[in-house]
Amino acid sequence: MSGKLKRKGIDNTKDDDLIIESPFVDPNDPMAAFLPKSFGKQAIAKSAPQHDKTKRVDKVASPPKSLPREDNEDNNRPSSKVYDDDSDDDDDSDDSDEEEEYPTSHELIIKDHTKTVTSVSLDPSGMRMITSSHDSILKFYDFTGMASNHLHSFKSIEPREGHLLHHSEFSITGENVLVIPACAQAKVFDRDGYEVVEFVKGDQYLRDMNNTKGHVSEVLSGTWHPTDRNLLVTCSSDSTVRIWDVNQKRQQKEVIVVKSRTAKGGRTRVMCVKWDDPTQGGKKLLAAGSQDGGLTLWGGDGPFNRPMAAVEGAHEKEVGVSGVAFSQDGNLMISRGLDGTVKSWDTRKFKKPIMTRTDLPSNSQNTTITFSPDSSTVLTSDSLGNLHFLSPATLRSEKTLQVTPEVPLIASLWHPRLNQIFTTSTDSTVKILYSPTTSIRGALTILSNPLKKRHIDDDPSLTTDIATGMNADAIYLPNAVLPSKTKSLAQANAIANAYKPFKPHTTPFAKSTPDEEHIRKNVALSGMRDEDPREALLRYAEKAKNDPMFTGAWRETQPVTIYSNEREEEEEEEEERSKRQKRY
């Protein structure tokens, strides 16, 4: 029964199901183009080809050169939990299970900077992203306004002209952005890129840092308070950690002087700082890592005059600590050193590291380390372009990805709401690792958005400028054909560039050196600097004597020239001054 609905229940049968038969239409019938072929869930079908284009081809990373070791009383005896390639455990699980655990099956590449990207941050909702770079530019991205053919920011600003950016981070509410340029003053912007506050710079001539109102040298890092949206902390090369209030820019709220026993003068560069999150069950701790390799802990609510715990030489000296991270309960802290090591610490017994991993090279002071949203995995990168997923208990690599082969990775971030991993590297790229099944929004929003199309007004060959188009003096015949514009967009840009001043060719000495012969012939008075003025005047002495133009009457009245004696005049003036009486 074609195109009709049959119900068997009318005939008192047991089956009450509805049977729908699709109408039979000839494929050549024009009516077939107007009939729907499917219903609902069209978004997945549209973005599926885009997901196939962004699927990763994972390369097997090289095995670790050394094993994690447990630091104990037996002279750093190796831990019993080591790598065993021949074990019959469940390490070789299916790829599908691994993809469910780590969202790394696909990647989206954003290359909008020109130099090393030092940091990446997202607001809590995961709708906006910011990146900072060594090109001094801070970029704002909105995933809803991006497409697969338009991976660009909606706004770019230069917080401090000519100064590279160390770090940028969204606040806990996503309203403000903390920016750390390579200077003594940190800045705060709103989520749209407008400056909110610039903190004051301290007096650099004061020796005691407790008496200064701000940093006196380059700020290296900073972060927001985990619960108070108005508080933030910064660390600097002036050996201080300062807590600021956004509503008070004239002076910091607290100043903490970090003293070093190994550095010269007791001062060291404080390279990283991190606040423990009490909302996740943490202990309200404040940790800082310095260039002398030391780690310091304070109570998050103060007092800050003395540290709660400190470890001298936790990492190698003169290279320092690039990042620290806390677990959810605050009992475990992970530190990342530029000496190629990652160490785990117990904050309740902050004396020796629990475990040490020594085969993770790093050469950037912005290299980060972070926990996964559930604190079950530690995420860090190395200078070989590998992204490591470490076990917090053993620091064993659960998975290693070659994100940017032979290109150092800098920062990494695992967003808890999107379930996506963001990485930055020295080749000016930002990569978004995601899974089409377990991730939400973020990269999936970009791929599902329609492709960006160029507006007709952007093509000058199809538009007419009113200022240079038809005017009142022009006469056009009714049947005449108007001259067509054939200039393309490239030709229009070439014409615009023709009005730019000519840039001279750059020589190996970084400046232009014109030809001396050309200057002497074409530049007027170019040779006067080599000419003797006395000789130039004596050339006209004979002519002025024989044919005087203005002093002809002096031949009879004053045949001999009389010159004034300046020395006698000066002596007379001095005598007159001495005769004058001083008035009181």
From TrEMBL:
Residues 8-17, 49-59, 67-76 have a biased composition (Basic and acidic residues). PROSITE patterns: WD_REPEATS_1, WD_REPEATS_2, WD_REPEATS_REGION. It holds the Pfam family WD40. It comes from Arthrobotrys oligospora (strain ATCC 24927 / CBS 115.81 / DSM 1491) (Nematode-trapping fungus). SUPFAM superfamilies: WD40 repeat-like. GO terms for cellular component: nucleus; site of double-strand break. WD repeats lie at residues 110-142, 212-254, 321-348. Residues 1-110, 548-584 are annotated as: Disordered. Gene3D superfamilies: YVTN repeat-like/Quinoprotein amine dehydrogenase. InterPro entries: WD40/YVTN_repeat-like_dom_sf, WD40_repeat_CS, WD40_repeat_dom_sf, WD40_rpt, WD_repeat_GAD-1. Keywords: Repeat, WD repeat. This is Uncharacterized protein. Residues 85-102 have a biased composition (Acidic residues).
